[in-house]
Design brief:
This protein is of the alpha/beta class. The chain has 15 helices and 15 strands. Strands 6-7-8-9-10-11-12-13 form an eight-stranded parallel beta sheet. Strands 1, 2, 3, 4, 5, 14 and 15 form a seven-stranded mixed beta sheet that branches. The protein is globular. The two termini are about 20 Å apart.
C-alpha cells in the first residue's frame, strides 16, 4: 500500500512543486523538486517528483516552491496549569533565587494551589491560548505533563484536561504523569511517604484510567533523590509505562544514568550531566531533550555539554518546556533560535530536534517526525528560501500552512 514502486496510486491530496526537508535518515534529507501525497490521513509518497508513481489525487496543492517539513513536535511541556507566576518573575528580578522562592512556598506549590482550585474546564480553557500559539507555528504533536496537582484527584483532572485538548484541537497529544514533581505541603516534608503514595496509589490509578503514555520525575536537590525516583520508575515498569526524567538541571545527581538504566525515552535539561551520564544515555538510546527556554529564563550559566553528547552519538531534541515558573515559552521557533545561539546547535540539529528527535523522545517516531510513507501526514509548509530561516529569526513566524493527518 505504501510502496515506492512506480505504478498507479490513488490519493486524497497531493502537495507538489515543493522543496522537502524529509528528516529521513540522519540529516535534513532535502529534496529539491518534491511532492507529498496522502491517503486516509497518512503519507503514501514523499520524495522527488521524478521518483513518484503516477498519482490520482482528489485535490492537488501547488506549493510554489515553498519548503515542507514534518509537523513540529513539542516533546516537553507542562502547558496545563492554573494561574501564573508573574509575581515570582518580579521577585527573581529583584534577586531571589529559584530555590529561595520554592522554599518560601512559591514555585511549583503556588501553581499546585491554583491548579487544585481550577475545574477541568478551566484548565482546558487556560491552556488553549498557549496551545494555539504553538499550533500557529506548525506544531502537530505535543507532550503534556501533569505534576501540578500532587494529589490523585488533581493529577487525574490535569491528565483528563490534557487529553481534552486533543479533542478540541487538530493536534496529537501524548500525556505524561509527573506525580513526582514536588512535595505537597500536606506531606510535611516527608518525601519518602509522598513517593510511596505516588507509587502505590496515584500511579496505579492513573494507569488504570489509561490517562498516561509515560511517567516522569524531577530528580534534583529541591525535588527527589535518584533512589526515590527509582522507586517511581519501578512502579511505572510494573504498569507497563515508559519513563523519562528531569535530570541534571541544577546539579549532577546522576539522574541521566538512572534514566538510562530504566531505558528511558528521554532525559531532559542535562545542564550538569557528566561524561559517564552521557555514555549511559548513548548506550540506552535515551534522547537528550535540551530546554533552552528554561536555561534562559532562570539565567542559568552552566550549559549542557553538547559536544560530549555529539561525540557519544546521543540524539538531541529541543522543546519549549512551556510552564508557568521557569519557561513561560510558547514558541518552538524561538526555542530553536535559543538552541542555536545559547547552546551552539547547528541548523540541522535544531530542525531535527523539533521533528525527528522530538518524536523519538516521545516514542512515536514510527508514526510522526519525518516525511516518509506510512506515517501520519503531519506537515508544516513554510514561506522560506532555506531551512536556516526557521532557526535564524526571532519572533517571526513564516508558517504558510499546517496539515494534521492529511487535513
Amino acid at each position: 500500500m505504501y510502496s515506492h514502486n512506480k505504478g498507479h496510486m490513488q490519493c486524497d491530496r497531493l502537495w507538489k512543486n515543493a522543496r522537502l526537508a524529509t528528516l529521513a535518515g540522519d540529516g535534513l534529507g532535502p529534496v529539491e523538486d518534491g511532492l507529498v501525497a496522502a491517503r486516509d490521513g497518512r503519507i503514501v509518497f514523499a520524495g522527488a517528483a521524478a521518483d513518484a508513481p503516477s498519482l490520482d489525487a482528489r485535490e492537488t496543492i501547488d506549493c510554489a516552491g515553498r519548503w515542507i517539513t514534518p509537523g513540529l513536535v513539542d516533546c516537553h511541556t507542562h502547558i496545563v496549569y492554573g494561574g501564573n507566576r508573574a509575581h515570582e518573575f518580579e521577585l527573581r528580578l529583584a534577586g531571589a533565587s529559584y530555590e529561595e522562592i520554592a522554599r518560601a512556598g512559591g514555585g511549583i506549590v503556588s501553581t499546585m494551589r491554583a491548579t487544585r482550585a481550577a475545574t477541568e474546564e478551566a484548565l482546558v480553557a487556560g491552556a488553549l491560548p498557549r496551545v494555539d500559539a504553538l499550533i500557529a507555528e506548525g506544531v502537530t504533536t505535543m507532550e503534556i505533563k501533569s505534576g501540578y496537582g500532587l494529589d490523585l484527584a488533581t493529577e487525574l483532572k490535569s491528565l483528563r484536561a490534557a487529553r481534552r485538548i486533543a479533542e478540541v484541537r487538530p493536534l496529537s497529544v501524548r500525556t505524561t504523569f509527573l506525580g513526582a514533581h514536588a512535595l505537597p505541603p500536606e506531606a510535611n516534608g516527608d518525601k519518602d511517604a509522598y513517593i510511596a503514595t505516588v507509587c502505590d496509589e496515584m500511579l496505579p490509578a492513573v494507569a488504570q484510567a489509561g490517562l498516561a503514555d509515560a511517567v516522569d520525575g524531577f530528580c534534583e536537590g529541591i525535588a527527589f533523590t535518584p533512589e526515590q525516583i527509582g522507586r517511581v520508575f519501578e512502579a511505572a515498569k510494573a504498569e507497563g509505562l515508559r519513563v523519562k526524567l528531569h535530570a541534571e538541571q541544577l546539579s549532577n545527581l546522576h539522574g541521566a544514568s538512572l534514566a538510562a538504566r530504566f531505558g528511558a525515552l528521554s532525559a531532559d535539561h542535562l545542564e550538569h550531566v557528566d561524561e559517564p551520564g552521557v555514555r549511559a544515555l548513548a548506550a540506552a538510546g535515551t534522547v537528550a531533550v535540551l530546554l533552552p527556554g528554561a536555561f534562559y529564563f532562570v539565567r542559568e550559566t552552566h550549559k549542557p555539554p553538547v559536544e560530549l553528547l555529539r561525540r557519544h552519538g546521543v540524539r538531541i531534541a529541543l522543546a519549549s518546556d512551556s510552564n508557568p515558573g521557569t519557561s513561560p515559552l510558547t514558541s518552538l521557533l524561538l526555542a530553536m533560535n535559543m538552541g542555536a545561539t545559547l547552546f551552539r546547535l547547528t541548523v540541522d540539529e535544531c530542525l531535527a530536534g523539533v521533528t525527528r528527535e522530538a518524536a523519538r523522545a516521545l516514542g512515536c517516531l514510527d508514526s510522526v517526525g519525518t516525511l516518509e510513507a506510512g506515517k501520519w501526514c503531519d506537515l508544516a509548509i513554510w514561506d522560506i528560501e532555506r531551512p536556516a530561516e526557521l532557526v535564524y529569526r526571532m519572533g517571526f513566524n513564516p508558517l504558510h500552512a499546517r496539515v494534521w493527518r492529511g487535513r
